[in-house]
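SUBJECT: A protein chain and its fold
Encoding: whole-number codes for local backbone shapes
Chain under study, with its fold:
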Amino acid sequence: MGAIICSLVTIDTIRELYFISTAWGHETTWHDILYIVRKVLAILGWILLTWYVANKCLEKNGRKQ
């Protein structure tokens, strides 16, 4: 379930970042730059969270890699 939510959030975020990046150079403000940084950090956070939960589940089930 977490992977599905993570992928949906990531796809939506990438779409938003694409629209902002296509407007790059057209009166880009600090607000836009901070928004991009926040979205990229959100993607990394979801990836790390999913990786951490997956590893904990594998350890709990005795299938540590």
The mean pLDDT is 72.
